[in-house]
Amino acid sequence: MSEMNLLIMNQSELACFLPGRRQREVEELIAPCCVIDAEMMEPEEWAELLARHNPKVIVGGWSLPQLPDGVSWMAPRLEYLCYVPGTVRDKVSCKMIEKGLLVTNWGRSISRTVAECALLLGLSCVRRSGYWNDRMHHHGEWKDDFVTTKSLFDRRVGIHGYGAIAKELIRLLSVFTSKVTVFSDGVPKGVFDYDGVECSDSLNSLFSENDVIFEVEALTPERVGVVDEALLRSIPEGGAFVNVARGDLVESKGLLNVAKEGRLQIGLDVFNEEPLPATHGLRGCMNVMLSPHIAGPTTDRMVDAGDHAIENLKRFCRGEAVVGPITPEVYERLT
Question: Residue 250 carries which DSSP code?
Answer without folding.
Answer: B
